[in-house]
Q: What sequence folds into this?
């Protein structure tokens, strides 16, 4: 079974940084370019940004 990634690591981190005030990244690899796995621990959601985004989708 083949898997296709829709978003890049950088795009996912950018989105998490936008919606959360605290994002911790852990890599399974040497650096971003040579990692095969990235774990993001996201805390402190920015609820106002989430509400604004959902309102934008409804309009």
A:
């Amino acid at each position: 079974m083949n898997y296709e990634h829709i978003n890049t690591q950088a795009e996912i981190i950018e989105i998490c940084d936008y919606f959360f005030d605290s994002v911790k990244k852990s890599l399974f690899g040497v650096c971003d370019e040579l990692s095969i796995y990235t774990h993001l621990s996201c805390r402190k959601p920015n609820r106002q940004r989430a509400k604004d985004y959902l309102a934008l989708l409804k309009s």
